[in-house]
Structures are given as C-alpha cells and as structure tokens.
C-alpha cells in the first residue's frame, strides 16, 4: 500500500508508471522484418510466417464458405443465444450514434455542410491467444455494419489444427462478414495494409493484439499512404476508485478480471479508506487461488498498485493523471464524481457495473485507448468507421460579402494567387 500524499513527485510518477514494453529496439526490428517479407513475397510469406509462429501449415488463407454453416451447427443453442444477445445490445447502442449531416448558412449566400461517409474497406483483427474473443468480433463488426463499409475483412490466428473458433465465425456471420482469413500476428496486419495475391489491402485496421500486432499497426500507419489504424493499444488496464462504502470482494474481483488478461496488464486501486485497501488485499489473495489463470494474474499484480489517498478529490486527481483504459467508481455517490473524471476510456459507475459488462454485453465498445492515450483518444465508436468531410457552396453575393475579408487576409499572408481566385470572379 502506498500513501499518495507522502510520496515525492518522482515516487508518484513511478507509482503510476506503466510496465515498459521490453526490448523495444529488437521488437521494432523484428516487426519491420516481417513487414518486408510480406511486402516482397506476399502469400508465400504469409504461409511461412503462420507455420513459424502458429505452428500450422495452412492449405488456404481464406476461410471456406462451408466452414460458416458447420461452425453454426456445432455451437450449442445457449452459446449462440449469448452471442446474439450481446450482438443486439451492441447494435442498439451503436445505432443511436448515427448522425445527420450538419448544414449551416454562415452568412447569406454561404452554405457550409459537414458530411459523413463510411470508410470503403476495413480490416478487423481478432486476437486468439489462449482463448477466442467473439466479443471483439461484435465490437468491431457491428459498427462496421451500421456505418455501411463496402468491404469488411476479418483476420484471426489459427489454432494448432489450423482452425478458427466456431464462436468467432458465428459472430462474424451475425455481422454480415463473409471475407475471413486464418491469419494472425504482425503478418496479418501487414497483409491488410499492403495486400497479397489473395488478400486485397484495406483502408483502416481495427482491433487489439499483442505487442507485435501493435508495433505492426504503428509502423504501417506511418509508412503506407492512405492506411490508418483505430488507435494505439497496449496491455489492459483498470483503475478503481473506492471509498469506505465499497464492497472489497467486488473491488478485488474487478481488479482480477483485468489482471488475468496478461502478465503485462496493470490494475490500480485508489481509496481514502485504509481498511478497504487492507480488505481488498485479503480478497485478492483469497480469490486468486480459484482462478484458472492464477499464474498470469499473479504476475500482473506484481506491477499493480494499492494507493491510499487523503480523500476522494485526491483520488480523482490521481486517476486523471493516470488516464486508465477502464475506470470503476465504487463510492457512496459515484455519479457526483463523473464531472471531475476527465481521462478514461470507459467508466463503470456503482457497485453493480462490473467492467465485464462493458467487455461483453452492456452495449458500449470495449476497444479502448490504453497506456495513457485516453487523455487524447476516444473509445471506439461508430464515427471511427466513417470519415467526415465538408462541403461549401457560395453564391456571387455570398462571395462578395466575404471578399474584403479574404483580400485583407491573403494580403497579410502574401498569397497573391489565393487573392486573385476571388477578385477575378468579382471583376467578371
């Protein structure tokens, strides 16, 4: 337990430091090598890299049509019902985000419009790792479907038998996705950005992944013209603000729900109650014993923090400094803190709003900025699958009303051609 008010500025910075991405230089070099292989050798590189990293020799990159129906048949009714329920929840929330064009007459004869248009082609990267993530398919596939993207491509690394989990395939079916590739890692992102003999490139890639995937997204977004990514993404994070009214068992369960994501995940508790912190610590030790991913969570807890603050105002201040991916507020009056909480990817309010609800089925998106990027990046939404552009239309009288202003400013900036584009019209 750390007492925030007794820490020096440097100690406070250290307390909120994220786990460093290990061996950054070698990671950059390794990913650059993978990208170059895909760029130069196309499909041959994708097959070879899949065999190297996933341990399976694929016969084909693209998922065959018959795999969709067989996946649906193998799933239990209860599993399909759960995926469908989550789909409807996410669909409801994201449908509400559809926006109308903004049309404004800024002055008589001058009409300005803000329009939105779906991104033509998008790639959805779905991690597999130790377990399939159909929830991520829904989080990405639903807004892509609502936005109306012409082409939606899904990639997911294969298991040791060269298959993609039935849950992944069924969730893709619900979202209307038919172009699916058995491909993961940095090579999948490279294929989506650069294309290959089998895979046509896309305009933007979405989805979380390991550090190789994240590095590939970063490198390719900086080197391929017209290619973009959703956001920088790193290990999972959760910060909980709790006062004396909080239930320690709830808080500990929430912290462990993020700690089990990976050994580089980070969880933080901020509380003005020393007894709550002590009780949460006991609950962490107790609940940890029954977790199937106990070893992973234990490793993550080594770089996590239990911090005592003098009051809730200080807890809010610390939270804003950290800028967590997930923020849980378990206090007597949690809504009272919302106006002061500035930096978080997604906020969970009250004792009965576990972070797991947002991960799966409340309806909000679980693709969120990490590593402090919540200070400048937003949680994924429908808007990310569209591009916004403006239109302006001026009548002759409208241009005349702006002419003096434009002439004066172009003169100040020394841009004669800009000025002439106006005056030549007025002289005619």
Task: Please tell me about this protein's structure.
By secondary structure, the chain is of the alpha/beta class. Helices cover 45% and strands 17% of the residues. The strands form 3 sheets. A 6-stranded parallel beta sheet has the order 1-11-10-9-12-13, sandwiched between helices. A 5-stranded parallel beta sheet has the order 6-5-4-7-8, sandwiched between helices. Strands 2-3-14 form a 3-stranded antiparallel beta sheet. The protein is globular, with a radius of gyration of 25 Å. The mean pLDDT is 96.
Give the overall shape.
Answer: globular
Into which percentage range does the β-strand content fall? 15-25%
Sequence of secondary-structure elements: EHHHHHEEEHEHEHEHEEHEHHEHEEHEHH
- Biggest β-sheet description: 6 strands, parallel
Number of helices: 16
Summarize the amount of helix as a percent range: 40-55%
Strand runs, count: 14
Low-pLDDT stretches: none
Distance between the termini: 77 Å
Mean pLDDT: 96
- Widest β-sheet, arrangement of strands: 1-11-10-9-12-13
Q: Report the radius of gyration as a whole number of Å.
A: 25 Å
User: What structural class should be given to the helix and strand makeup?
Assistant: alpha/beta
